[in-house]
Structures are given as structure tokens and as C-alpha cells.
Design goal:
- The chain has about 280 residues and is an alpha/beta fold.
- The chain has two domains: about 60 residues; about 190 residues, Rossmann fold (3-Layer(aba) Sandwich), CATH 3.40.50.
- It has twelve helices and eleven strands.
- It has a seven-stranded mixed β-sheet, sandwiched between helices. Strands 1-2 form a two-stranded antiparallel ribbon. Strands 7-8 form a two-stranded parallel sheet.
- Strand 3, helix 7 and strand 4 form a beta-alpha-beta unit.
- The longest helix has 15 residues.
- The radius of gyration is 21 Å and the shape is elongated.
Length: about 280
Amino acid sequence: MLSLTVRQALQQGTELLEKSGIAAPRLTAEVLLSHAARQPRQWLYAHATDPLQELWWIHYGRYLHERLNGKPTQYITGIQEFYGRDFQVAPAVLIPRPETELLIEAVLEKTKGGRIADIGTGSGAIAVTLALEASECAVVATDISAAALVIARANAARHEANNIAFLQSDLLSAFAPHSLDAVVSNPPYIPKVQAATLQREVVEHEPHLALFSEEDGMQHYRRLVEQSKVVLKPGGWLILELAFDAVPKLEPLLPNAEIRNDLAGHPRVAIAQNSK
């Protein structure tokens, strides 16, 4: 094999990714090379002139090939950061996004103890974070996907979040009336007709079950709103992540909801209190 230094391997990877139009090519190359070497990213710069070991080169080449073919970096490394913690991710679950952290802030603000349900938990990022940040609460994490629940349980164990119960359930169907103090969810909200407009990384690799909602993208919102009226205690909270264009369609369902924007100024979170 041609002898390369760590710096040269980083440069080659960056150029390949850049030519293929991959976003953040340098950062992506750093993440993939550090994953191949099983070292933190800062190690790459402290050892920039070290020769690249053959095994690292083999892994790095495979990771670059996967990324060039559209596989998200997070599914290659198996890790995504959320709320300052690393979470295991795989194609059975959505990759947690930074804007979803706004849900956490809303729940922590509105709920002081009680029983919280994270509906469609996926990787468990929301449920685990709430269990750790609001340890006085009892958290229930549900998903319709058994494969997603395996990953969520692994993340709970990874972070020693012991106050979580896991249920396989279609939205809120497993809960008794007036049994919850808060419901939080980042539900599927993309209309299937928009699949062709999505990034390749999303539509070809992330789970369609967690992405798409029938018709106008509002099916899961409608069901959550109706079910939450039954399962929430009087004064309980429904906190939902929003599609950027969901507000006009959500207003008839939750006319008194508080809408919060993300850092880009887009409507991102709806907060509504149960009156029944």
C-alpha cells in the first residue's frame, strides 16, 4: 500500500467528498477517519504526520465509499449527539436532529414531575434525555417498531436511564384515560407525495415508517391530538415537533397552542394544555 500520513488521508478524503457534493466534506472526512482509527477527532491533528495504518486505511476507504453512495455519516459511525450525549443510531431509527432539542426544553419547562410519554421514541433520544434531565418524572417510551425499541433500550442502558418503561404501541393506544401528565412526540409528518423531493440520504436510508404520514402529512397529528384528549390528565401537556408548514393545518386541531420557532425562525414546536 502507498504510505500516507494521517494528514494526507484526510486531504484525500476531503477532496473526494467535495467533488461529490457532500456537505461539510472536511468535517465528514475527519469523523470517518477518526472512526476508522478508533480515535477522537482531535487525535488526528496531534498525529497528523503519523503513517496511516493499513487497517485504518481499509476501514476509511469503506466508510468513504458508503458516504459517497448516500449513507448518512451517523449510520456509518453508529452515533449521533443529542443534548450533549452520544446516542446509538441505525437505519431502524431516525437520526436525532438538533432542532428536536427544543422539545426537551418545552417539556422541562411545562412539567414538574408526573408521568411523561414519548411517542414514537425511535432511538430513545427524547425519552432518555428527559429521564436524565427530569429524574423526578416517570418516562414511558413507545414505538410501533420493535427494532426501534431495541435501540432505544440500548441507549437507556448506555446512559443508565433507569426510570423509563418501554412499550410497543401504535401512538397512544396503550394508555388508559387520564394516565399521563405530558405527551411529547416527533411524529411522522412528511406527505408520501413529497418523497421524491427529499435528500437521498433521508429517503434511501432513514425509516419510512418514521418519516411519512398519509395524505397531507397530518394523519399522525390528528390522531395524537384526539388520543391525547383522552389519556392526558386535566391540565396535562401535549408537546409536538412540527413540520415547517404544519401550523396552518394544525390550528383547527389545537386553536390555543403556543408555537415556538427554531433558531432558523421556522415554527418547530406546538405546546397545548389539555382542558378536559
